[in-house]
């Protein structure tokens, strides 16, 4: 576990009350770490970072500091709804103290929003730094993790690469959220177009870190099409969540305010816009491929109207 004492918590969040006991936040730290950090960096790396300080080198210590800055805010988010109440023999009771008053709801909501934003931003900073160091040969646990290996095999293999075409603000978490859609588009859209062998060769060239000039030219045409096709595929699904109870619309309703997910019309319009851009990029790619193989069978191109339906084929 990344935190083991109250002093470590206060180093990452100095506004924790001086009387806060580590045991009070222990369960929330234990919940937040696998819930928020493990999906991004993997369990093996987290276990390594939990070793005593004397057993870690400078890179691991630096990464632990960066991840702690995120984890402390995630732990606060997990704890906030529960610290004002207690479960006892008499049931659920509300906590109170002689020199303290209950937090006003607007203060509480501002606090939770700020903590969530800080947690996400600090995690993005840590992940950007981690990817940079991993690319230089550090953190073998992370390099071997499923999270890292999945992205290395993609034509858009990082938040930085995807951010050249989509406004994701270099968010590693946004990239991971879009990764399943990137894989789907590569398999269903690009593989039939490029051919399995050509796509595999491109991936191998990227892993080697030294793609040839023809590969670089092809990637410059493939990547924008891939980015916008991915966004077109992802937008309708990112506004819903699949839970044990089925599919639900993402919303936040706390009885005071309500933030609904974008309407189907808005999502549909964004998706059609991304699909239109993707179609334009795909046509550039098709022209390039046709020029490389002038004797190959001519490919058909569908042009779409404002509803997203093909109007004619050329």
Describe the structure.
The chain is mainly alpha-helical. The protein has two domains: 1-151, no CATH class; 153-314. 63% of the residues lie in helices and 9% in strands. A two-stranded antiparallel sheet has the order 1-2. A two-stranded antiparallel sheet has the order 3-4. Strands 5-6 form a two-stranded antiparallel ribbon. A hairpin with a 2-residue loop joins β1 and β2 (91-94). α2 packs across α3 (43-49) and α11 (213-238) packs antiparallel against α12. The longest helix is centred in the middle third of the chain and has 31 residues, at 105-135. The protein is elongated and about 85 Å long. Mean pLDDT is 82; it is low at 253-259. Pfam families: DUF6712. InterPro entries: DUF6712.
Give the rounded overall mean pLDDT.
Answer: 82
What structural class should be given to the helix and strand makeup? Answer: mainly alpha
Strands ordered across the widest β-sheet: 1-2
Number of helices: 12
Query: What count of structural domains?
Result: 2
Q: State the end-to-end distance.
A: 59 Å
How many β strands by DSSP?
Answer: 8
Overall 3D form: elongated
Uncertain regions spanning at least 5 consecutive residues: 253-259
- Indicate the radius of gyration in whole angstroms: 24 Å
Give the biggest sheet: 2 strands, antiparallel
Helix content: 55-70%
String of helices and strands:
HHHHEEHHHHHHHEEEEHEE
Q: In percent, how much strand structure appears in the residues?
A: 5-15%
